[in-house]
Amino acid sequence: MATKLNLNDYLGHNMNCTCGEEHKTNLKIVDIDKNAVARLPKHIETLGYKNPFLVADVNTWNAAGTQVTKELETANISYKKYIFKDNELVPDEKTLGSLMMAFPRDCDVIVAIGSGTLNDLCKFSSFQLGLDYMVFATAPSMDGFVSIGAALITDYVKTTYQAHVPLAVIGDTDILAAAPMEMITAGLGDILGKYTCLLDWKMAHIITGEYYCKTIADMVKEAVEIVVEESTRIKDRNPEAIKAVTEALVLSGIAMSFVGNSRPASGSEHHFSHYWEMKFQAEGKKPVLHGIKVGIGMIIVTKMYEMLEQEHFDFTSLKERSFDYAAWEKKVNDCYQDAAPGIIALEEKTQKNNLSERNKRLTILEEKWSEIVQTIRESLPSSAEMESLLSCLGAPTKPAQIGISPQLVEDAILLAKEVRNRFTLLQILWDTGLSESYAKTIANLH
Ligand SMILES: NC(=O)C1=CN([C@@H]2O[C@H](COP(=O)(O)OP(=O)(O)OC[C@H]3O[C@@H](n4cnc5c(N)ncnc54)[C@H](OP(=O)(O)O)[C@@H]3O)[C@@H](O)[C@H]2O)C=CC1
Ligand SMILES: O=C(CO)COP(=O)(O)O
């Protein structure tokens, strides 16, 4: 029997942490259990709302809309609703605009009925309007339900906007367990991605001195371990296992809200996912679920960490290298111009791409190399183990299985570091001059 998370331990009080920070979240209610839909009216009333505005799309309405409205009507709670008609809902300016146009000014809380995209749209629009929001989850597909950021696409670039957390997250395990299996395995992929993102965070702490909180990292690690323990029961849609996955996803979101950004939940594996998502969108290709791409990204990043810990560097000659910015800039522009013309973090003057900053990092890498190797070995399961876990659940593990070409794999290893200003393995590869050779090796494997 798997260990259980107690999410209530993190709600309703400030946590004075050994990292020196005080962590808190405004999330008040987590109800992920059997028959949670019947308790939705009570949660709305407890929080003091009278006029909810329900936001869903055709798929998520089919999954939960009728049950939600039946319960609200029985409890005499009047509501208004908006159901997006789009087949593939994209969280961009147009979609946000249509939500704004449908917004009834007399509502007092927005209730997202759905998963990642609907949650982000409601999170962001409620934040801009100065209103509270809640989420009724329809699939355990990603960990953003209670995070503070909203992942939106503006000017073709996948950008995380600071917003706020919902006051409540409600998930009925019968509804969650009935979600498409692909969405459930996407949630698993998003969770397994924490292995590499937590290691990226630790690397950033060791090499650049970035803030790191061991308590939060351990919290997320515990959630990952519970999900790994539950993987066989997840396959059978066991409601208890689905509850465990959903709670792990919620916990990961609490970790993001504690830090105030997505550092404990998003590293290089996520940057691959964002890069591929932008490319797919620009090329008009059918989108692939976020967590599915993250799972594949996690396997690639694990493989590259396995390669890195075998390296023996000559740091003196690494520091003497010049860098051909013009050639690199051309490569980046060629890659990004259709997908994300807004990306501009390439210039030599930025901290990550400046040679004297690179050399400072190389000095630390040299001094701490044995600690770094040890940390890599202690932090990651093997890539083979992760591949087998995902494929046992029928989830793809290789880029080609979701239509990602070897070229897109290579480009992501070189360029996905520009998607965010965040130190990860991809920056270590750039600093040590390994990006191109790793990109070729990994692309040839797939
Ligand atoms: N803010 C944050 O911290 C985070 C945000 N994200 C973001 O979340 C998004 C991905 O969310 P994800 O949940 O993977 O995917 P989506 O919310 O995009 O949903 C994917 C598909 O599943 C449909 N769907 C949802 N629930 C059900 C159900 N129960 N039964 C049948 N179909 C259903 C959706 O319909 P439809 O498309 O019509 O909605 C859609 O077709 C990305 O934009 C990602 O960047 C991810 C992690 C963290
Ligand atoms: O997807 C996320 C966590 O799963 C959020 O990541 P970003 O902040 O990189 O968008």
TrEMBL record:
Superkingdom of source: Bacteria
Molecular functions (GO terms): glycerol-1-phosphate dehydrogenase [NAD(P)+] activity; metal ion binding
EC number(s) from the headed UniProt entry: 1.1.1.261
A GO biological-process term: phospholipid biosynthetic process
Keywords: Cytoplasm, Lipid biosynthesis, Lipid metabolism, Metal-binding, NAD, NADP, Oxidoreductase, Phospholipid biosynthesis, Phospholipid metabolism
Cited Pfam families: Fe-ADH_2 (PF13685)
Leader sequence residues: none
GO-annotated cellular components: cytosol
Protein name per its UniProtKB record: sn-glycerol-1-phosphate dehydrogenase
